[in-house]
Amino acid sequence: MSALAPPVPAGMATPPPASAPCPLRWTVDAFHTANASGAFAGRRPMLIHGILLEQGPMNEPHATALEKVTEVMRLAFGAGWRVRGQLPLVLGQDTDPLPDLAILPGNSLHPVRSHPTTAALVIEISDTTLTYDTTTKAELYATASIQEYWVLDLNACHLHVYRNPAPLSAPLGAVAYTTHLTLDPNDSVSPLAAPGSTVVIADLLP
Question: Which pTM does this prediction carry?
Fold first, then answer.
């Protein structure tokens, strides 16, 4: 994963001159405008706290897992839920992680006209980004009050299940998930928002 430096879109404010170079922070609006213009063609960017990060090309196991997870989640949640793959999830003025999967109430045939700002369940598929997904992104989703976050580890064939976000002690000033389960392929789990459904971990793996 590396910092991405595409052209700056028109209308983005340039920081005032300083004694030393300073980073140019992106907004979600500028990020989406640049993306829609094709500035990131062939790339997989995300915006985290105003910084553009590139995830690199998607390999075949990741693509297969994404396809399988999407199908399993559609069956598990059923009607009345939107299953959004690698689409905007706006978590602030400067953050859109474009998660592999975000599941939220609604009907994809009648979507709202703005990007969602929360989800019942977020899923990331990890092959080269496990540490980032289980630290930085876990804190990001916990801070956004997303009640359940899954990380599918393709290398170890584990599903990490994070639940119950809560503030840490005052000096730390952060929010974290207080429950972390590590499940093997033979294990199963029921999403908090779909307690009547059972997902077998092996069914998610490529």
Answer: 0.84
- Mean pLDDT is lowest, of 105-109, 129-133, 162-166, for 105-109
The CA–CA distances, whole Å, from 194 to 1, 103, 138 equal: 33, 11, 21
Domains in the chain, CATH or no CATH each: 2-54 (no CATH), 60-204 (3.90.1570.10)
pLDDT in tens, 12-52: 555 555 567 777 789 888 888 888 888 887 788 889 999 98
Q: Cβ–Cβ contacts within 10 Å for residue 74, how many?
A: 15
Element (H, E) at 59: none
CA Rg, the chain, in Å?
Answer: 18
Q: Which amino acid is at 196?
A: G
Q: Which residues on adjacent β-strands are paired with residue 54?
A: 2, 45
**Beta strands at 148-153 and 121-126: parallel, antiparallel or unpaired:** parallel
Q: Return the H-helix or E-strand segment holding 136.
A: helix 136-143
Structure tokens at 182: 């590590």
How far apart (Å, rounded) are the C-alpha atoms in residues 80 and 177?
A: 27
Structural contact between residues 47 and 31, judged by C-beta atoms closer than 8 angstroms: yes
Measured over the CA atoms of residue 7, residue 12, residue 17 and residue 22, the dihedral's sign is: negative
Amino acid at 22: C
